[in-house]
Amino acid sequence: MLSVEKNRRLTQVGPGTPMGELLRRYWWPIATHDMATRVPVKRKLLGENLVLYRDGSGTVGLLAEQCPHRRAALWLGCTEQEGLRCGYHGWRFDAEGNCLEQPGEPADSTFKDRIKATAYPVQELGGLIFAYLGPSPAPELPRYDLFVWDDAWRDIGHAELPCNFLQIMENSVDPYHVEWLHGRYGTFLRELGGKDTPLPVVTKKHVKVAFEVFEHGILKRRVLEGHTEEDEDWKVGHPLVFPHMLRVGAAGLATFQIRVPMDDENTWHVWYQTYRPEGGAPPQPEIPVYEVPLYDEKGEWLRDYVDGQDIVAWVTQGAVADRSKEHLGKSDLGVMLLRKLYAEQIDRVEDGEDPLCTFREPHDVIDLPMEKDKFGSAVEFRQLWTRESSIRYSPIKDEIFALFGDPVPSWV
Amino acid sequence: MSRRAGPIGAAFCPGCGAALDDPAAFVQEFWVGADRHFLCWCVRCELLCTVVIAAQLVSHEPEH
Ligand code: FES
Ligand SMILES: [Fe+2]
Ligand SMILES: [Zn+2]
What we know:
The complex is a heterodimer of chains A (412) and B (64).
Chain A: H1 4-11, H2 18-23, E1 27-32, E2 41-45, E3 48-54, E4 60-64, E5 77-79, E6 84-86, E7 92-93, E8 99-101, E9 122-125, E10 128-132, H3 145-148, E11 153-161, H4 165-171, H5 176-192, E12 206-214, E13 217-224, H6 232-235, E14 238-241, E15 245-250, E16 253-263, E17 266-275, E18 289-291, H7 306-316, H8 333-350, H9 378-388, H10 397-404
Parallel strand pairs in A: 11-18
Antiparallel strand pairs in A: 1-10, 2-3, 3-4, 5-6, 6-7, 7-8, 9-10, 11-17, 12-13, 13-14, 14-15, 15-16, 16-17
Chain B: E1 26-32, E2 35-41, E3 48-53
The structure holds FE2/S2 (inorganic) cluster (FES), fe (ii) ion and zinc ion (ZN).
Residues 13, 15-16, 18, 42, 44-45, 47 of chain B line the site of zinc ion.
């Protein structure tokens, strides 16, 4: 149980809320690279309605949705050689929000110099476009390893999920759910479908889990049945990267799950994959982007695979999970630690300090820890993950199988 | 489920006595068997601790 008031404090993300102010200290993916084109599109981040575009000179801009003139939506606009022109009366803005033109005003008017659209800085990295909505000066955009490797293939899946981001993040410090939601429930669905082989890997029982706060967030370790503290699941572990990502994978396959709060009740989930076999991957011309479907042909939540099961668990907790009605036990310690970490970092920001994972120095790459042999075997984990995660919707799935050359597992 | 300790359970920081109903403080209830635990983080002294409201106090019996 968490009080209603403390739950609200941890889940509201809009401007002026304590969590909203903390989250505004970070760069967030606002779009995949293919979304910024000459056609302006609506985006939503931290409760703010925004418009993203790429003008004729290639500059990407992110403006508040409402035009400063008479508040028509700027997605109803034309991208010009420089900037975005509102579709209603033709006012034109650049990516800094400066008003460049007010065609209806007298030629000698200086009115435009006193008009500023709300504009936010954006940067492109690793096939994603990142935005910063917080106070100046913005920190450096963290160059996490997966975003910058030049010898990896990538693909990016994404979906908008109808629930608050916090319950999704809590899943990343909840190792026990793996053996139940994916191990037991996933196998139960296979049984109903007439398959009598349980899934490997995710059915392994947890003997011990540990969490520690470290410079990149929370490092998660586990010992599974039949394994020891010498295995990499314990010795190395993998991190929840504060405040918004899970790093998961095994040798050659490293992924981020990025949880982007659109508003209190919606989260843009990005599955960011890198494929980097021993010796590196050949150059990739473009990073493929795909939408992860949420429903089957009957309109039911898709849950016959690992990521689908996670999604349904998160969404059925409610648009914002009511933590005043939950019953936590000892196996929820990771979840409690994460909530406490958010509470503590909110307080840091209120004290005028930089929160955890703020980078002020320019840097080439930030390396994150992650086990190579996961759940006992990198190959087994890759065989599972390339089939049972959202990768199953990747347009380059067959090329990925060929890239690793892992044998087709018997359970398929 | 006992609510004798009240909805907050731990009302004050065991370290410095600051009120834990301060919105910025963190108090999280969880259960260990019949014992009600509160993970508390005090925003004033930054102490992280667990307050246990035990259902019973169990001791050992020395040989006699
Ligand atoms: S057993 Fe955990 S939510 Fe039901
Ligand atoms: Fe999961
Ligand atoms: Zn205290």
